[in-house]
Amino acid sequence: MELSAASKELGMVRNGNPESPAECDNSSDSDRLALVDPENIARFKAELLEFLDGLYTPDQPWDITVFEGYGRGMVATRDIAENELIFLDRPILLGPRVNNYDVIFCASCCRIQKKLTLCSGGCRLPVCSECDISAAPETPHTAECRVITSWEPKDQNRYCKTILYALTSIRGFLLDDLRRSIVLNMEAHPPRKDMTTEVERILKDQVFSNLSESGEDVQYLRKIVDVLNTNAFETSRMVQDEENNDHEIVLRGLYILGALMNHCCRPNIRYVFDSDLVMRCYASKPIPKGAQIFNNYSKTLWGTQHRIIHLCFSKHFLCGCDRCRDPTEMGTYLGALKCVRDSCPQGRMVSMNPMKIASVWQCDTCGLKMNNVKITKIQEIAGRMILNNAVKKDAAYIVEYLSDHVSKFLLPCNQFTVELKLQAILKIQDDAALELQVEKDKYCREILEILRKLDYGECYVKGVLCYELFKVLMAIARLKEETFPDEEALGYLRTAWTILGCSGNRPRDLVQLAQLHGFVKDV
Ligand SMILES: C[S@@+](CC[C@H](N)C(=O)[O-])C[C@H]1O[C@@H](n2cnc3c(N)ncnc32)[C@H](O)[C@@H]1O
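Above: inputs. Below: predicted complex with S-adenosylmethionine.
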C-alpha cells in the first residue's frame, strides 16, 4: 500500500480515537480470550515442549505468560546476560514466500537444476528428479502433491505460480495432530479487506476444479494463511546451481517460540537462523528477571511513521514504546525531514505527535509547521528516488549521489539516506579505491552511532556493520601499507563473530578471519 493512502486511512480513523490499538485489530475478542486462558496456555506450552524435543533444555530462561495489551508473550525467568542464548526453535511450517523469485527451484527441496520438470503427479509445481513422485514410492514431495491433486488442478501441463506461493499454507494439511493443535492455537488476524491472500488468488484464478469456496478445506487454508501472516518469519536457504553460483531462496517459516515474542521498536533480543534453519535467539542486552522478551517486527532503521503504518497494516496493532513516542526517536531523527525553508539550513521537521499519523509536523529551528499530507508526499518522493532508483546503482554512483544530491534534500540521519548508505557499505568491496573505502568507513561509524543512540545493544545490524568495518579497515591498511589489525579492528571482528558466527548466512570469510585472529579454534 502507498504511504499516502495508508497514512490517509490511518489518519482518518486515528482522528476519532487517537490512542486506541483497536482500530488496527480485526481479530475477535473470543479468540483472544481463549488464547490467554491459563489452562490453555499450560496445555499449549506442554505441546510446544513436546514439539521442541531435543531443542529445549530446562535451563532456558523463558516462560509464556500474559501481558496486558499484548496477549501472550515471553517472560525472562531469571536475569539473562547480554549475548546469552535464550532459546532454539525449529519451524513447524516452512516453504516458499509469496514473492517473485528470479530462479525456478524445486518446490520441495529448493534445489536449482537446469532439468527441473513439472511434477509428474499433476500438481503443477516444478520439482527435481529426486523429489518427483515417480522417483520412489514416497518422496519428500509425495504427501503435498497428494493434497494438491485432490483438489484437481486444471491445466496440469503448466507451471502454476499461484500454487507455489500457496505451498507453505498448503503444507498446513500435512501437520500431525500435535503440530496442528499448536498452530491452531496461534494468534491469527484475518486479512485486511484490501488484501489479496494466496487463498483468494487460488479462488479468483479458478486454479482447481474441486475446491469449494465454502468448503472445510478453504476454511482451514484461510486459517493457516492468517496464522502465517500474523506470525511467520522470513528466512532463507543458500542454494548453488549447477555452475556453482549461489542463489538465496527466500522462505517463510513459522517458528512458534519466535512468534510468541511481542514487538518493541527497541527489542532486547536478536536471532539468526543456522544452516539447518534452526532459529537461535540471543539477548542483545541484559534482560532482568520478570521483564518481557521483545522482538522487533519492523525494520530497525525505519522512522516512526513507517514503522507505525507497517505494524498497523500487517500486524494489526499500534506500538506505544518510548521510541515511538519520542519525536526525535532518541535523538536519531531517523524519520525527520529537512526544513523546506532555504533560510533554515539546519532545521529538522519532526512530527508534533508521532503516535498520531495525522499530526502536524514542525521545524525544530524556525518553527515552520506543515500538515501531514505534504510531509507524506515528500517522504514518498524521497523514498521512490532512493529505494527504487539509486539503490540499484553501483557503489561509486551511490556515494556520489549521496554527497551531491541526497544531502541537498534529506538529512544525513534520515532513514532513506541511511538505507542508501547501508547499500553502499554492502557494495563497496575489498578491491575498491581508497576514497570509496574511506566513505564506507564513515557510513559504518555513522550507523553504529545511530544504533548506540537507540540503545539497540548487540543486534544483528551491529554485527553486519562491525564485520564491514573490520573489512574496510583491512582494505585501507592494505592500500596505505600500514600494519593491521590494531585493537580497534580486532574489537569489531570479535563483535561480528559473536553476533553472526552461528548464522547460516554469515559472510563466507568470517570463520577464516575468526580462526586467523584466534577467536575460534574448530568450527
Ligand atoms: C507474533 S504474535 C505475538 C504473540 C501473541 N501476543 C500471542 O498471544 O500469540 C503478534 C501479535 O501479538 C500482538 N502484539 C505483538 N506486539 C504487540 C505490541 N507491542 N502491542 C500490542 N500488541 C502486540 C498483536 O496482536 C500481533 O499481531
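The pocket of S-adenosylmethionine is lined by residues 21, 35, 69-73, 186-187, 189, 230-231, 259-260, 262-264, 315-317, 319 (CB under 6 Å).
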